[in-house]
Amino acid sequence: MTTAETPESPRRTQADRRARTRSALLEAAARGLSEYGYANLVLERVASEAGYTRGALYHLFANKEDLALAVVKWVEETWNAEVRHLADAAPDPVAALIALARGHAVYCRREVARVMLTLRVEFTGQSHPVGRAISDIGEEFIAHCAALISAGRSSGAIPAGPPPQETAHAYLGVVEAVGIHLAGQAPYDTELAERAVRGLLGLPPADQDGQAGG
């Protein structure tokens, strides 16, 4: 180790500890929000379940709203890393929509995946920063899916049907429903997610031999 590297090591170690603490608190908060909702979330319980003190939590998050917003952002980032990239790498709109459905089913095998739906239901009809953050994510997802549906129809890969925006809303509902009701039931969760999406889009069933595993 050089002299120039020595002063950086404590800073790197401190940053690593902070990142680990933050990650543990976010995951504990996501579980708590999924189970109890925002109104009934107790920060002391979140800190305890993460293995930290209440002071450690308040060192990183100003209050419950700040923590919940961080959880929403964290879930969005993990979902994008684990699911959205599958669609981005797909060769065509149909493959992208199916990849999103199957990838979301896999993501829902994690208990923290329920947090977004739980919070969206809790904040429906309310003007609250957490509700608005979730609404913005949902609107972006629907716009993305509507664009894929429109592109698929333009190429002839997806047959004509209701407007892309309405179809995208239905797509979101189907994907969420499968993720909720079949969470963790592999491989049926991914298989039925694909079947449901194909039916919604008016696509023929996949060749069973050609299906990718979830």
Automatic annotation (TrEMBL):
<protein>
    <submittedName>
        <fullName>TetR family transcriptional regulator</fullName>
    </submittedName>
</protein>
<keyword id="KW-0238">DNA-binding</keyword>
<feature type="DNA-binding region" description="H-T-H motif">
    <location>
        <begin position="42"/>
        <end position="61"/>
    </location>
</feature>
<feature type="region of interest" description="Disordered">
    <location>
        <begin position="1"/>
        <end position="20"/>
    </location>
</feature>
<dbReference type="Pfam" id="PF00440">
    <property type="entry name" value="TetR_N"/>
</dbReference>
<feature type="compositionally biased region" description="Basic and acidic residues">
    <location>
        <begin position="8"/>
        <end position="18"/>
    </location>
</feature>
<keyword id="KW-0805">Transcription regulation</keyword>
<feature type="domain" description="HTH tetR-type">
    <location>
        <begin position="19"/>
        <end position="79"/>
    </location>
</feature>
<dbReference type="GO" id="GO:0003677">
    <property type="term" value="F:DNA binding"/>
</dbReference>
<keyword id="KW-0804">Transcription</keyword>
<dbReference type="InterPro" id="IPR009057">
    <property type="entry name" value="Homeodomain-like_sf"/>
</dbReference>
<dbReference type="InterPro" id="IPR036271">
    <property type="entry name" value="Tet_transcr_reg_TetR-rel_C_sf"/>
</dbReference>
<dbReference type="InterPro" id="IPR001647">
    <property type="entry name" value="HTH_TetR"/>
</dbReference>
